[in-house]
Amino acid sequence: MPKDNHTFVQNLQHVVGYFPSVVQAAGKLGINRQQLTKYLSGTSTPSLATLRTIASYFGVEPDDMFLPPRDFKKRWSPPAKVEGLPPQLEGTVQDILYHMHRTHGDMDEICGFYHAYINLLTHPNKIGRAYTVIQRHGDFTAVKTIMFASPYGAENKPRRPIKINGIALYLGERIYILDAQNVGQPNARIQSIALYPSSFPQADYLTGLLMTTNNARNRPIYSTPIVFQRLNADRIRKDDMRACGVFFRDSGNVAPDILELLNSVQR
Known about the structure:
Elements: H1 5-16, H2 22-29, H3 33-41, H4 48-57, H5 69-75, H6 87-107, E1 112-119, E2 126-137, E3 140-147, E4 162-171, E5 174-181, E6 189-196, E7 205-214, E8 222-230, H7 238-242, E9 245-248, H8 256-264
Antiparallel strand pairs: 1-2, 1-8, 2-3, 2-9, 3-4, 4-5, 5-6, 6-7, 7-8
């Protein structure tokens, strides 16, 4: 335990000041309110286990809590806030924003360029391949997907891209992606994706399930396996984008390991 408890107190006051009250901060940290008050006043010092709990919640290392305040503020800054929400929603939204803030370092490991594959339930003999870019912007991890409903190689006619924007969240051992398309329009669609396992960035693939709903009455809610294949790229490449579209399952254009992964993911 570092000896300079004064800097710890200042830094703890800084992070706890983000919460509306000490009571709420204690609840989120899982610490007794009276005990947290003692830490804030400097009359008591947390055990190493409690220090690790506090540091982990704020996404820093235990030793960071003893940095000079100016250095600590470079290491930790408050997450984004949304003002004006109804009280019953504010807590939920702020919890999500705060979790994004404290886990954005984990999301860095999945940022990159991917081909995403799904089984097309309306055409069981076909596979769809899309181009997905995952990038962090501050506390947020943005996901942009470009897909084509037309067959791969259909260069003799215009192929209008379908663009979908979403946001990703790392929670536990899974990555959750939520995106929306044409909200408010007759062809509106909302999708959620759960990806696992967490063995990245070494893994070449991220596998999971996509659940989607279309507001067209004749299209039911459904789920389907999805595979993200990491591309060896450090920028957007047009060739990777052109390689997207709809493929016949037996065309040989989809690698056998991709097909195996799509077949192995349980719905």
